Amino acid sequence: MSAVLAAWLGAVRAGHAGPDDLADAVRGDDPRHLVAGLQETRTLELHELPAALKGPISLAMPAPGDPVGLGGPASFNLAALEAGQAVVVGDVGLVPEEDARTVVWQAHPAGRVPWVDERETASELRVALLDVTRRLADLDVVAWQPDIPDLLLNLRHRAPLPLPPGYDARRVETTERAMLCLDILELARSDEGGAVSAYEMDRRRAALADLDRAARRALVGACSHPG
Q1: What are phi and psi of 60, to 5 degrees?
Q2: How many CB atoms lie within 10 A of CB 120?
């Protein structure tokens, strides 16, 4: 969700899409999205968001021990960590919160974000995916989660992501690869069966943790825009 917002904010700023296009893409099948905390008197609709924000656009995909995309303060970092995602634009951090059938993007004061290099993280993800695939094969991934090899082999046949027009082809490829890896991680963590020893389970978790970190960092790099 935050990745889509960050990507479309960059597209609107670059003139490749309009605010209404952003609102439609981010909302998807949700009934409504609102933005709270940017103005004292009212909440904003999504299509009003691009005009209300200035500065670099950065995606945050933090996890315990790896606050990638976050630059403080502690209150914002905690909210983003609990959500597992956020978008930082200039000195404003936006964290999605579920409120009944509405998604509310809550605005927080945000500090300067350490920049994540898109090319570097894309390369790291390619290396990590090859390495983790090998490590999982050594652990006989098919025996404990037979759907994972199908995911790994069918990247080209997955439904396209809701990315904006004019998005750089390299960023599209990196985003799709990162989302594939996150799907693999969700599937792998849903069932820890098939391991015959605690040692084997530890090796599996270590491999998945490495892929998780690389995927989140690559997604941050691909969906962030410097100015």
Answers
A1: -120, 130
A2: 12
Largest Cα span, the chain: 59
3-class SS shares of the chain: helix, strand, coil, % to 5: 55, 15, 30
Given phi > 0 = left and psi -120 to 50 = alpha, else beta, which region is 222?
Answer: alpha
Instruction: Report how far residue 113's alpha carbon sits from residue 90's, in angstroms, rounded to the nearest whole number.
Output: 9
- pLDDT tens series, the chain, 227 aa: 999 999 999 999 999 999 999 999 999 988 899 999 999 889 999 999 999 999 999 999 999 999 999 999 999 999 999 999 999 999 999 999 988 789 999 999 999 898 899 999 999 999 998 888 788 777 766 555 666 666 665 655 667 789 999 899 999 999 988 998 888 888 777 766 555 677 777 888 888 899 999 999 999 999 999 86
Same domain, 217 and 131: yes
Residues 126 and 101 both lie in one domain = no
Phi, psi dihedrals of residue 206, rounded to the nearest 5°: -65, -40
Q: Give me the number of domains the chain comprises.
A: 2
How is residue 48 annotated by DSSP? Answer: G
**Structural domain for 51, as ranges:** 2-109
In a domain, 227, yes or no: no
Ranges assigned E (strand) in 20-82 = 32-36, 44-45, 57-60
The tokens describing 16, both together, are 């490749």
Query: What pTM did the predictor assign?
Result: 0.88
